[in-house]
Specification:
This protein is of the alpha+beta class and about 270 residues long. The protein has a single domain, classed as Translation Initiation Factor IF3 (2-Layer Sandwich). Helix content is about 30%, strand content about 30%. The strands form two sheets. It has a four-stranded mixed β-sheet with strand order 1-4-3-5. Helix 2 packs parallel to helix 4. The longest helix has 24 residues. The chain starts with 9 loop residues before the first helix and ends in a 21-residue tail after the last strand.
């Protein structure tokens, strides 16, 4: 599928037509917001439209690393990044079709499918929102809906601080950690000692992932990244192969940056579940 817009299934198109943002006053909204998030998103001047979903089932190829060498497995790094980007693009397409200004609370998941060890399902999901007053200044690059993994509470707080989200930025690195030689292993028996080759490998792999995420933020014209997380996972690959995945929300000032003493204090919102 060369175009994300052609990959939205007919049932999804029909679902989007029934949402409030499709010009139907009687339409409903759907979201994965908690009650607190729903309240604070509305207090920020936005209304939820609908849940946006993008999925990509991807066959991840095979790449072998040198037994005794620390090295990035570039083909696997590219595959993991490309598959996530396809899922994200389809989620943004749904947001665009429902008329959303952006998506908040984005979650990216990776799941191995049972029928083939080399097939992974990548899913992106979040809630599309629109500015209630039609403010034109909240979309992301090239007029596309912004994406963010911030919760509803963090989204409200970010706006109160005079910043807005631009895009969910990410960086991936699949890395082969060298095996340790027999003589070196025997020399460490019974001793407290750092495994320097392993330490350096994991350090390098994390830095590569974070550098790529930082590069995405720079390309988006962001001033910084908030809510950054660094995930580690093997995805059932061969021993000594691990992925580091860095993700966060790129942000920039709405207008002029606010002085810290002028930022309103966070508000505590309580809810009771029966």
């Amino acid at each position: 599928m060369s175009d994300a817009s052609t990959s939205i299934p007919p049932h999804a198109v029909e679902r989007l037509k029934g949402l409030r943002g499709q010009g139907h006053p009687g339409g409903i909204f759907t979201s994965d917001f908690s009650v607190n998030e729903f309240l604070l998103v509305r207090k920020a001047g936005f209304e939820p439209i609908g849940l946006c979903v993008g999925t990509c089932v991807y066959h991840v190829g095979i790449q072998y690393g040198s037994w005794g060498q620390n090295q990035e497995l570039t083909k696997l790094s590219q595959a993991m990044y490309h598959a996530r980007e396809l899922a994200m693009a389809r989620m943004r397409e749904e947001a665009r079709d429902m008329g959303a200004d952006g998506i908040v609370g984005v979650r990216l998941t990776v799941k191995r499918l049972e029928w083939d060890a080399n097939i992974l399902e990548f899913m992106a999901i979040g809630t599309g929102i629109v500015h209630a007053a039609g403010h034109p200044g909240f979309k992301g690059a090239e007029g596309q809906p912004f994406t963010s993994d911030l919760s509803g509470q963090d989204f409200w707080t970010l706006l109160q601080a005079g910043y807005r989200p631009l895009a969910l930025v990410m960086g991936s690195c699949v890395y082969h950690v060298a095996h340790q030689g027999l003589l070196q292993s025997l020399g460490q028996i019974g001793r407290n000692t750092e495994m320097t080759n392993f330490s350096q490998a994991l350090y390098d792999a994390r830095e590569i992932a974070m550098e790529r995420m930082q590069h995405e933020a720079t390309e988006a014209g962001a001033e910084g990244v908030v809510g950054m997380e660094l995930h580690e996972g093997s995805h059932n690959w061969k021993p000594h192969v691990i992925e580091f995945f860095a993700v966060g929300t790129a942000v920039k000032p709405i207008a002029a940056e606010l002085a810290p003493d002028t930022i309103p204090d966070p508000q505590l919102v309580l809810s009771v579940n029966s």
